[in-house]
Amino acid sequence: MRIQITIMIIALAFSSNAQDIATARSQGIGATVTVTGIVTNGDELGPIRYIEDGTAGLAIYDLSGNNYLANVVRGDSITVSGILVDYNGLMEMNPTSTATIHAVGNILPGGQIVTPSQIGEATESELIQINDAIFVNGGSNFAVSTYDFSSNGQQGKTYIRTGHPLVGKLIPVGPVTLIGISSQYTFSVPANDGYQVLPRDSADIIFAGNLIITSPITQSNITNNSFELSWTTSDSATTNCNYGLTSSLGTVINNSGNTTNHTMTLTGLQPATFYYVECYSINGLDTATSSIGIYTTASNSSGKIRPYFNHSVDTTVSIGVHAQDISVYFNDTIKAYIDRAQNTLDICVYNASDATIATAINDAHNRGVQVRYIADDDVVNAMLGNLNSNISVIYRDPSVPGIMHNKFMIIDANSTNNSWIMGGSCNWTNPSNLFNDYNNIIFIQDEALAKAYQLEFNEMWNGDFGNNKLDNTPHKFNINGIETELYFSPSDQTTSQINRVIESVDYTLEFGLLSFTRDDIGATIISVNNNFGTNVRGIIEQENITGSEYADLLAAGVNVKSHQGISNQLHHKYAIIDAGINSIAAADPIVLTGSHNWSTNAEVNSDENTLIIHDHTIANIYLQEFTQRFNELSSTAIIEKSIDISIYPNPTSETIKITSSYIIDELILYDTQGRELRREQSSNSFNIYSSGIYFLKIVTENKQIVKKIVVE
To answer: Is the pLDDT confidence value at 514 over 70?
Structure first.
């Protein structure tokens, strides 16, 4: 039912020339109209204002610079005149004079109750309410992004903008009543998609009962036949789950008990198999239910992880396994893995022009391998003309915002021993990306991971790209004992995962990026850089593009260098966390790599993939590549971070001196593998008798820092 809005008598006195909003909208783009209504939002949605009367709603956006909407806030009754325009599918009014405010503090409409499928032109710019909405990403935190939700089997989207009150707040895990403004953002012509709900603040998310799931559902202790799921609730309750091989579930486990900290172990499972699980807790008549998540067991595969680089690396920082610089053999290496395919070969690469790889794909097809290929529609993709005409190739839907920017390949996904994925940053263009530009590729032999990539591939193969995709793949894997995470954009809120990884830094962070324009990631890096004891270094290729974080990072004292102007692009998209330290307390060495540039387009529009690998050896291999690139660049005039502890000389022949404004309590020496070698109490000097690379942890009265020491 439509909620009628009563306009006060005083408003009518000022708006005798106003039309109702439905009549005004019917005049179409280009018409000049005058309308009266109640404002349904404030600054939480930025400068735009939505107004509504008893007939319809309308967005108002002031482009004039004359502050025609100055002081207009939620609950105001206003009359405003302007021209109707189209902005990416949304009908807006650009006001031509100052809005007249008749009264303030009006009781707002409660929002007409609709289902996700009813969100469209009929509800555009109106306040709506959706019952039993379940967020797909429940348990993580809201960031600047779009978020999928479901209600009664139908799918919808919300959007959270920069500076929104919900940024950083927990996404509800169970069903809620969702209130917000029905809006639209699309590049499609005709504009028949891109509908989204804009909640205004936490009051627009109403929980169904008193019992609430208050944490993410976290997976741990993954084996080939079991895993654990954990969550917390707002009050003591039982621990239960319903799981199965499809979203229909079917197997219920009821644990009695009465706790706020819940752990459920699923046992008797099959290796490399995906399970759909709904967790829930009961307290009396209240039940708190999670969204249905998808989780995987470990595979019985070898778990081999093999990164490769196409330019020189610096093995002096190696902890034992040297990075592989295969230079002009990138295409031949990709061909060698394609030659392994026995049953299936799924390729999802933005751009390709290499004859060697084309020959390998044709050879695979000729020996009976089922080959499927997904490419982007906006680039030349010259290689595809050399493929056998019987090979199935599809292109990204050009009506969907963004690009198909992936660079991954899946070999024999359903094989225990021959399942491989290829990830990384490299397009298959010859000579640019394969040989000239700085890139990485990574191959992993794991059946569960390959099946997850294939699930994403199938979603695009069936025609769903960009923001039409859902977060419907497992994210956490046990690859031969190595914790690995996988996220696809734009459905999986990859930027929040990048921020989480950066926030986990204990000692060192390195990053190498083609493009970096996300303010939230920039703020996270600056925060980490300001933490005492951390050492942050970065390289950015696109220094001067609109929105680049380079200048802001530099001004904040981050040790970042520009690669712009250097022959051949730095095309990487990686971050390295705590790669020089292993067993020092709390360190979790991580490498993050894939196709995802740190940009809003990658986050909300384009098809991307990101791997997060928790392993010291793999992280150190990437550190060898970063070290070579960083040392090749000239120093940048940066504002150095204030360090209260210094050591000298470094490199040294034996003895280092330490100056500190703090009282030194303890000195601890580690080798490059994180093994503790020696401890000494308070001292301003330290002797190291053997040549090599070491890490010295300096513990003071209230701070600690780790310094890398080179002994010659």
So the answer is: yes
